[in-house]
Write a structure and sequence with these properties.
The structure is a single chain. The protein is elongated and about 80 Å long. Helix 6 runs antiparallel to helix 7. The protein is an all-alpha fold. The termini are far apart.
């Protein structure tokens, strides 16, 4: 076990299994004292849960918060007095309440059914990113993070804890991405740190790699090109072989090289992306923000070539817009269309076509 786990147990911030205490009892020659103490606490806890279940037939929403994980302060709503909508217009609290009720009728504190539904909710929120305004999606993500925070101290198997931390890691990463979109820099970094911590405890290298890639994307848009290059390379070194994070970080490296005005390195990165996606099939849900869609390669190539001033960017950008306009898979991609229009405008400017460039940029800006 890591030092942080031992320290958390010593100070009462983390619950561990009976097997953990049994090992400690043997190593410290406690002659059964630690096991006896654990059993006493477990019995009291079980009795308390039974009493609480009898006295509270429905799960109050205020119990979904936990003192163990303190998320960053909530951002102010986009407009006062307006309740944020869930991605599909549903009540954002309804799913969390259903999850809590399902958990309480299972045999254990956190069973496989609860974890599976959390996994599904996490994927659905990541898929909603493609077409949902950040201010609308963020409250929904935060409610699910609140719910996960309320489960962190519950007793569960080691596998179950890893699944819970993995779901929390993905959602924290998505929350950070949304805060970046909304220009909430401090909140974004806080959630990235939380995502890294959860992923580290769960042993999930891809989430950690996505954290580096997300930082690279953020600083790239702020003009910190050298830092973006270093972060994208760090993401590649961390990402599992063949993972979506590896492909995305490689593409991000190409964009950083383009901003630095280095055509040879730019094209080398694009070639690596092409190799990585050459055998990829279109995923079942290409709109999933953390699953690389091979079709993205056209858009990223257009962006990168436009930034480095390559005339070929115009053809790639027009192709990307044409493909995205038909909403492949029935899913609109307004963000990617707007980005491709800006890429096309850059390419048109380089080709001395300012009128056409202006029209494309105006279409992107007024798209919403």
């Amino acid at each position: 076990y890591g030092r942080s786990t031992i320290a958390n147990v010593e100070t009462g911030r983390q619950n561990v299994s009976r097997a953990w205490w049994q090992q400690c009892d043997e190593i410290l020659c406690a002659n059964g004292t630690l096991i006896e103490g654990y059993d006493q606490v477990a019995n009291i806890e079980q009795h308390y849960r039974r009493q609480r279940a009898l006295s509270a037939p429905t799960p109050p929403s205020h119990l979904l918060m936990s003192s163990r994980i303190e998320p960053p302060a909530r951002a102010a709503p986009a407009s006062a007095g307006v309740t944020p909508r869930a991605p599909n217009g549903a009540d954002p609290d309804a799913e969390v309440q259903a999850l809590e009720l399902a958990r309480r009728i299972e045999a254990s504190d956190v069973g496989d059914g609860t974890l599976s539904r959390l996994d599904q909710a996490t994927d659905r929120l990541a898929m909603s990113y493609a077409g949902t305004p950040p201010a609308e999606l963020l409250p929904h993500v935060r409610r699910h993070l609140d719910y996960i925070a309320g489960l962190v101290d519950a007793r569960m198997t080691l596998t179950g804890r890893r699944r819970l931390l993995t779901a929390g890691g993905w959602l924290s990463l998505l929350a950070a991405t949304l805060h970046i979109d909304l220009r909430h820099g401090a909140a974004a970094e806080a959630w990235l740190v939380t995502a890294e911590q959860m992923a580290g405890q769960a042993g999930h290298a891809e989430i950690v790699a996505w954290c580096y890639e997300t930082r690279a994307w953020n600083v790239l848009t702020d003009g910190q090109y050298r830092q973006a290059l270093a972060l994208s390379q760090q993401a590649q070194a961390t990402a599992p072989t063949g993972s979506s994070a590896l492909i995305q970080a490689t593409a991000q490296e190409g964009r950083a090289w383009a901003r630095l005005g280095r055509p040879p390195e730019t094209r080398a990165a694009l070639n690596r992306v092409a190799q990585l996606v050459s055998d990829l099939h279109t995923p079942e849900h290409p709109e999933h923000h953390y699953v690389y869609d091979p079709a993205k390669a056209v858009s990223y190539t257009a962006t990168t070539l436009a930034w480095v001033g390559d005339p070929a960017a115009e053809e790639f950008a027009r192709t990307a817009i044409a493909e995205l306009a038909v909403a492949p898979g029935g899913v609109p991609r307004p963000r990617r269309i707007a980005s491709a229009q800006i890429d096309l405008a850059l390419a048109l400017l380089a080709a001395d076509k300012p009128d056409e460039a202006s029209a494309e940029v105006l279409a992107a800006i007024t798209s919403g």
